[in-house]
Amino acid sequence: MLLSGVEPNYVTIASILPLCARVANLQHGKEFHCYITRRKVFEDCLLLWNALVSMYARSGKLVAAKHVFDLMQKRDEVTYTSLIAGYGMQGEGHIAIMLFEEMISLQIKPDHLTMVAVLSACSHSGLVIEGQFWFEKMQSFYGLVPRLEHFSCMVDLYGRAGLLNKAKEIITRMPYKATAAMWGTLLGACRIHGNTDIGEWAAENLLELRPDHSGYYVLIANMYAAAGCWNKLAKVRTLMRDSGVTKSPGCAWVDVGSVFSPFVVGDTSNPYAPEIYQALDGLTELMKDARYVSDGEVLLEGTG
């Protein structure tokens, strides 16, 4: 557009900024930041500044996100939600809650997305009491009826904290049908905390949904293997085979400067393979030094 002499408006830029965060390369995002700053016409465009806060926060650049936030003359629930979510993803739950309380003190009413960000921040930081409080008060204080995503946050919150009976209670009492992702969250928590009873309950409900994501089957198989339930493990393998579900190999995108290069597990054709494997070997040694012990995941037959 610029080379053609066409000046982008605020809608164009606000649409592009989220893409800059998704590709994990902020160079273009920073260029747009400079472009916005140099043009007075964008000075009072809250949509653009919110998009900038969101871009930096979603990329984990919280210092930059907070800097933009502090420079803004006007803020709304979107501004606060973006920053709360960013701090939550980084495990800074206390800061996220402080921002939420600041938002409330300014009489900016939260919406459903704000509450998802707050509950998620509590979950990632192990703030069980705080999460319970805001979940219970979101309807009585702000008239927000909890949706499926809020219940999902609570299952994650309790699951991470090892309060698996409470997580189960949330699922059984909520007025929604649990999704595969919710069952998977509970199942993963049961595996971490060694609760086979609730884990099997979650696995049975998850298998009823016949998910097409191979990761769920691997999660179930690993739980059965850890519990020594070999017959049930064999049934999972059979179900996965009969359903035509295959496990895709792990893939990472490696930043090599000007471009991102895909790197697949076991791939030796990648020109950067020697350097990547050398780095992985170094990370493996660091994990050994930190006394990390693998729990020995089961690789399902025929899943690659």
TrEMBL record:
<dbReference type="Pfam" id="PF20431">
    <property type="entry name" value="E_motif"/>
</dbReference>
<dbReference type="Pfam" id="PF01535">
    <property type="entry name" value="PPR"/>
</dbReference>
<dbReference type="InterPro" id="IPR046848">
    <property type="entry name" value="E_motif"/>
</dbReference>
<feature type="repeat" description="PPR">
    <location>
        <begin position="76"/>
        <end position="110"/>
    </location>
</feature>
<dbReference type="GO" id="GO:0003723">
    <property type="term" value="F:RNA binding"/>
</dbReference>
<keyword id="KW-0677">Repeat</keyword>
<protein>
    <recommendedName>
        <fullName>Pentatricopeptide repeat-containing protein</fullName>
    </recommendedName>
</protein>
<dbReference type="InterPro" id="IPR011990">
    <property type="entry name" value="TPR-like_helical_dom_sf"/>
</dbReference>
<feature type="repeat" description="PPR">
    <location>
        <begin position="45"/>
        <end position="75"/>
    </location>
</feature>
<dbReference type="Pfam" id="PF13041">
    <property type="entry name" value="PPR_2"/>
</dbReference>
<dbReference type="InterPro" id="IPR046960">
    <property type="entry name" value="PPR_At4g14850-like_plant"/>
</dbReference>
<dbReference type="GO" id="GO:0009451">
    <property type="term" value="P:RNA modification"/>
</dbReference>
<dbReference type="InterPro" id="IPR002885">
    <property type="entry name" value="PPR_rpt"/>
</dbReference>
